Amino acid sequence: MSRLDQSRLDRVDRSILRLLQQDGRASIRSVAERVHVSRANAYARISRMVEDGVIRGFTARVDHEKAGQGASAYVTLKIVQNSWRTVRDQLLELPGVAHIALVGGEFDVLMLVHTADNRALRELVLNRIQGIPQVLATQTLLVFEETDQVPPD
Description:
By secondary structure, this protein is of the alpha+beta class. Helices cover 38% and strands 20% of the residues. The chain has helices at residues 3-6, 11-22, 28-35, 39-51, 84-92, 118-129; strands at 71-79, 97-102, 109-115, 135-143. A 4-stranded antiparallel beta sheet has the order 2-3-1-4. The longest helix has 13 residues, at 39-51.
């Protein structure tokens, strides 16, 4: 059983996570210097957090408009009770799906999608998502502007 299973992340672990969220390409040397530990210690901590699933991967923050995905929307779904896993698997196969969450409240699923334009968004929502038999209703909320939160230094 790993240390993370037994206790919370310590201050150094949280600092490493914050740095990697700001720059996932930061070198081990740079991370180690900034959190004041040895390279070996930083490497071991990052490896452990990857193995334990705390760090699920490394990714780039994308300007969707510059990447040819000028239309973004949050889409809410009401689905047939107990169909979450089936619906989730089908949604994950759709183009432009950035995030899917099972939520409580007026609707069951909240998802973020990015498409080339409004025509592609319309096709995605009206034909592909609403074409899933377990989807009872959708609501589309257009994103006019978005800003990613980057953890402070």
